[in-house]
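[Discussion] Sanity-checking designs against the backbone

I'm trying to build intuition for which residues belong where. Below is a structure token string of 337 positions. I'd appreciate it if someone posts a full sequence so I can compare it with mine line by line.
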């Protein structure tokens, strides 16, 4: 030991992690993951009517839009390079019933939205949900009979709804209801009706989460919902069960998998990517968005940096992309860099 050897070198054996972090250019050079506009799917909320942009109280900065405004939003999203939108309708209360029968109307709000956007902005992908919750008078994702969500009848209905959505021009069907056997049934129905090229993004692991609260205000199901969704969504305590559920969706023909909510379930994102190798997407849900917004509005965190950090975390966890209400803000931000 010479007298030039200092105590830190003795401990680190000359391994110094900070060398690669010492300047902006070294940090850029060694950066492992990057967030780009290609990673983003933008979920939007639709209301009937025209000229309407309506704020959602529990989701500051997110609005419900009538179809004409949604078309404008789609155009901006496409111009910024956002690959796809996910559309969620706020259906007139008068059209909701016990079985969600309006999901089978070819010209319902979700299908008319798809038609309008596809016509005006053909280059952007449209991902539609076939769950029944926007259409039922009880806010559940399935048909409710004698206090039970009946699985097989629900599956038959959403498979029909999926065909109507494909006919309207949807590119990817994304069932979020967690009924057993839905992926296989939807695949069969799509193929039988000539929609072989329409994909399925399975909400493969959807947890019975409290993070969905603000979404239920957005599509007006919060006040309707009695009880909870624990008989069909996955228990937040269960990771292995989530993987088994996703494995069935893969077998049944899912093209892409989704994990929902996002940030509290990064372990599931990672495991799914390792296990199946399929494209994996995380849904940064309404409550995750709202937490960040609320804290930022209070000046308690730097909202923009936290937003970017959470989205990058999804990439590090193996996700191919993220459904996020921040998508449009992020796309605007990235386009300025
Ligand atoms: C239901 C559905 C939910 C969300 C999208 N579709 C959850 C629910 O209400 O139970 C949540 C999305 C979000 O919170 O951002 N099919």
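Best answer:
Here's mine. Compare freely.
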């Amino acid at each position: 030991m010479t007298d030039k050897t200092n105590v830190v070198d003795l401990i680190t054996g000359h391994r110094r992690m900070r060398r690669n972090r010492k300047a902006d250019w070294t940090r850029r050079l060694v950066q492992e993951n990057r967030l780009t506009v290609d990673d983003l799917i933008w979920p939007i909320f639709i209301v009937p009517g025209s000229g309407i942009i309506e704020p959602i109280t529990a989701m500051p900065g997110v609005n419900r839009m009538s179809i004409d405004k949604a078309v404008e939003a789609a155009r901006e999203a496409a111009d910024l390079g956002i690959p796809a939108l996910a559309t969620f309708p706020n259906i007139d209360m008068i059209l909701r019933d016990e079985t969600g029968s309006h999901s089978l109307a070819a010209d319902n709000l979700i299908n008319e939205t798809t038609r309008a956007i596809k016509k005006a902005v053909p280059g952007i992908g449209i991902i539609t949900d076939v769950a029944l919750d926007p259409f039922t008078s009880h806010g559940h994702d399935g048909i409710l009979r004698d206090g039970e969500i009946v699985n097989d009848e629900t599956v038959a209905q959403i498979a029909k709804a999926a065909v109507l959505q494909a006919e309207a021009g949807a590119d990817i069907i994304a069932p979020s209801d967690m009924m057993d056997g839905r992926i296989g049934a939807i695949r069969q129905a799509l193929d039988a009706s000539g929609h072989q090229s329409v994909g399925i993004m399975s909400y493969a692991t959807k947890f019975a989460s409290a993070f969905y609260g603000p979404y239920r205000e957005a599509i007006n199901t919060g006040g309707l919902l009695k009880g909870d969704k624990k008989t069909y969504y996955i228990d937040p305590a269960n990771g292995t069960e989530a993987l088994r559920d996703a494995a069935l969706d893969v077998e049944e023909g899912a093209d892409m998998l989704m994990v929902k909510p996002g940030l509290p379930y990064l372990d599931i994102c990672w495991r799914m990517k390792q296990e199946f190798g399929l494209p994996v997407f995380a849904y940064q849900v309404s409550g995750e968005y709202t937490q960040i917004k609320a804290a930022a509005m209070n000046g308690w965190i730097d909202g923009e940096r936290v937003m970017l950090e959470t989205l990058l975390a999804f990439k590090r966890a193996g996700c191919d992309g993220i459904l996020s209400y921040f998508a449009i803000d992020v796309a605007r931000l990235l386009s300025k860099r």
